[in-house]
Specification:
Blueprint: H1 2-19, H2 26-51, H3 62-78, H4 83-106, H5 119-130
Helix pairs in contact: 1-3, 2-3, 3-4
C-alpha cells in the first residue's frame, strides 16, 4: 500500500513541478508545523515506554506509523490536485493521523495499565466482593 502512495505522490510531485502547482504559504507552513509538533510530542511521551525491555513484544514504530498520514496530509494541503483526489487524501490523512495521535497521546497501548494498583480499583473490587 505504501508503494502505491509513493507512486501517486511521485506523479503528483512531477506534475506539480512542471506546472508550478506547489503551494506553501504561511497557513500551510503553520499546519505542517503543528502536525510535526504533534508527532514530536507523541514521540517524547512514549519514548520511555518503547525503550523499556519489558515491551519488546509491542510492535510499534511511532515514526513509521505517522509517515503515511503525514504524506497524505502534505500532498492534500500543499499541492493543487483534482478536487476528488484532494478530498480523498485529506480524509485519509485526517482520520489516520487523528487515530495515531489518540493512540500515542492518550496511551491506550500502554502495557502498564493492567498492572496499576489504583485506589478506585481496590474499592471496586471490595464492592464486587460484597455483592
Amino acid at each position: 500500500m505504501f508503494s502505491i502512495g509513493i507512486i501517486v505522490a511521485g506523479g503528483a510531485t512531477v506534475k506539480a513541478c512542471k506546472e508550478k502547482q506547489f503551494l506553501f504559504d504561511t497557513k500551510r507552513k503553520v499546519a505542517m508545523a503543528v502536525l510535526v509538533l504533534i508527532i514530536a510530542l507523541s514521540y517524547y511521551t512514549n519514548y520511555a515506554i518503547m525503550a523499556d525491555p519489558r515491551n519488546i513484544n509491542i510492535s510499534s514504530n511511532l515514526l513509521q506509523n505517522f509517515e503515511l498520514p503525514l504524506f497524505a496530509l502534505f500532498f492534500g494541503i500543499c499541492f493543487v490536485l483534482p478536487k476528488a483526489l484532494k478530498r480523498l487524501l485529506l480524509a485519509f490523512g485526517i482520520f489516520t493521523f487523528g487515530y495515531f495521535s489518540l493512540y500515542y497521546l492518550i496511551g491506550f497501548h500502554n502495557p502498564y495499565w493492567l498492572n496499576l494498583d489504583l485506589p478506585w480499583d481496590f474499592a471496586f473490587q471490595q464492592l464486587l466482593s460484597i455483592i
